[in-house]
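Comment on this:
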Amino acid sequence: MEQKIKELIDELRPYFMGDGGDLEFIKYEDNYVYVKLLGACSHCHFQSATTDGLEEYLKSEIPEIKGVINVVL
């Protein structure tokens, strides 16, 4: 499951990078995907919209996913 999630995130990575950001897959646990927003995405006012869009995309490909959580370290 983690490999599939990483592949899907990699498909979206150019869009994040195009805006000066990126994201890092942290883990998949209890049907939740944990990511860390990086670069411009880490302090953008639209973080929730970004994670919501990512969640929608991942759920469309992997229905078992319950949500996406942005980990702030």
About this structure: The chain has one domain: 2-70. The beta strands are 21-29, 32-39, 67-70.
